[in-house]
Backbone:
């Protein structure tokens, strides 16, 4: 579902909400005095996606723009072929891998 919403046109409200949620997750509030309420779930859907992928919310959103790349990446994580903890990849390695998948996709 994340990928579907990420690839929607920019004028769709769901895409705008996802963009704001990604910004908030990455530490960019929607306006200066904004604060999250104290009554909130400890782990959100977006938090789980970022945790599973090992990417920041913004990077996950950018990676999901290409359906093939996002599907490959998500399938590898789902099937245990890409385990962030097991491979002990750091953040930069994950971003480079995502960019390599995009490059391979555009070349093929």
Residues:
């Amino acid at each position: 579902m994340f990928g579907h919403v990420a690839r929607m046109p920019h004028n769709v409200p769901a895409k705008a909400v996802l963009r704001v949620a990604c910004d908030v997750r990455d530490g960019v509030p929607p306006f200066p005095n904004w604060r999250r309420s104290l009554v909130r779930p400890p782990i959100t859907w977006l938090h789980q996606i970022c945790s599973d992928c090992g990417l920041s919310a913004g990077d996950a959103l950018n990676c999901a723009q290409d359906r093939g790349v996002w599907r490959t990446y998500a399938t590898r994580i789902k099937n245990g072929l890409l385990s962030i903890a097991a491979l002990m990849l750091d953040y930069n390695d994950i971003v480079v891998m995502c960019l390599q998948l995009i490059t391979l996709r555009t070349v093929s």
In short: Residues 2-107 form one domain. Residues 84-89 have pLDDT under 50 and may be disordered.
